[in-house]
Amino acid sequence: MAADSTLHLAHCLASVGVSEILKITERANALRRQGADLLVLGAGEPDFDTPEHIKEAAIQAIRAGQTKYTVLDGSPALKEAIRRKFARENDLVFAQDEVTASAGAKQVIFNAMMATLDAGDEVIIPAPFWVTYADIVTILGGTPVVLPCHEEDGFRLTAEALEAAITPRTRWVMLNSPSNPSGAAYGEVHYRPLLEVLLRHPQVWLMVDDMYEHILYDGFCFVTPAALEPRLRERTLTINGVSKAYAMTGWRLGYAGGPKALIQAMASVQSQVTSCPCSVSQAAAIAALDGPQDIVRERCELFRQRRDLVVDALNAVPGLSARRPEGAFYVYASCAGILGRRTLGGEVIDSDTAFARYLMDEGGVAVVPGSAFGLAPYFRVSYATSREVLEEACRRIAEATQRLLA
Ligand SMILES: Cc1ncc(COP(=O)(O)O)c(C=O)c1O
């Protein structure tokens, strides 16, 4: 009998489907190809271009022959730029062997989890969360312990919930401020009680994702736990990257600072996966981190105006409500008020997924349902797109919502 040649997929992939966001993007693209007039508010990347001086640095690097493998987890020049950034902006002083660079913050997270998780190890993830956190943990055989964070608490994790979730198997807590998808940010007053809890549990490490550090509004003061609580420094990994602040998502360059032993272990993982990050992107990242920062502030102000546009427009729609987020470029709006209503075709909108599907099929707008981020019934609007598109999209959302029958 011939051997079975059916593709065998690894068990660890069984519960990690294609992400809801990709599915929506694919469906939106398919509808557009068929001629549908659809506005897509799903993008997790700035609509701006990478600043010229950064592109220029990359071109110079190519001309100078910086086209070969570099040191595994970042060239010495990039590591110096990362060290300067942490010291200048976050009051964090790292040695060169305490920083690392990868092909995006996503790879930084993967390296850290791969280097530290054994089967059954638990990772606490406050919801709503960036889907990648839970999927990476699952792929590696760990157990994501998802803690719902309520809108009344500003979508922030509370010390009580954290304390109650810690077990002897807890390896990590993942915090993300400002957050994708809620835009919620933690100030010192929000972090302190959580750090107090962690001080009582020495086996628990803290992974902090500061990716949206520079997209913060209304004078909200950015802080990062390793700077706030030096006693946790030896078990905190502080992650950041150039994707969002400098509109460099395609360059794939993320970085982190943390204890030397962890950084070394992460480099071992990376050595067998991608070797070093792209040499040209490393040169571009140096220009981004060391270069002028005014463009980052100017773009942040544009994002703030768009945030207000979207929040105000959604709050004007009966049945929808949106918290005004402190940062990032997402609004996480509640659709609890319209659950149970019916479409003209008789379909009951019984979940955020049904609402998002309805908006896409009959409203001409693509958004991501909150269930994709572990907290329903919400939907995420990315406002990383032009004012004109946002105004029209909000008008369509209002109209489609008002068409629903009570
Ligand atoms: C919270 C958060 N962290 C990290 C990333 C990924 O960043 P990178 O492009 O550096 O992999 C994203 C991208 O959407 C994100 O939303």
What would your notes on this structure say?
39% of the residues lie in helices and 14% in strands. The chain is globular. It has 406 residues and is α/β, with parallel strands linked by helices. 47% of the residues are buried. The chain has helices at 20-33, 52-63, 76-90, 105-116, 131-139, 159-165, 188-199, 225-228, 260-271, 279-290, 294-315, 352-363, 387-403, and strands at 39-40, 99-102, 122-127, 143-148, 170-176, 205-209, 236-241, 254-257, 321-322, 330-334, 365-366, 368-369, 378-382. The longest helix is centred in the last third of the chain and has 22 residues, at 294-315. Bound molecules: pyridoxal-5'-phosphate. This is Aminotransferase.
In short:
Belongs to the class-I pyridoxal-phosphate-dependent aminotransferase family. The chain is an alpha/beta fold.
Q: Which terms would index this structure?
A:
14% strand; EC 2.6.1.-; binds pyridoxal-5'-phosphate; transferase; 2 domains; seven-stranded mixed β-sheet; Aspartate Aminotransferase, domain 2; alpha/beta; single chain; PyrdxlP-dep_Trfase_small; 406 residues; four-stranded antiparallel β-sheet; PyrdxlP-dep_Trfase_major; Aspartate Aminotransferase, domain 1
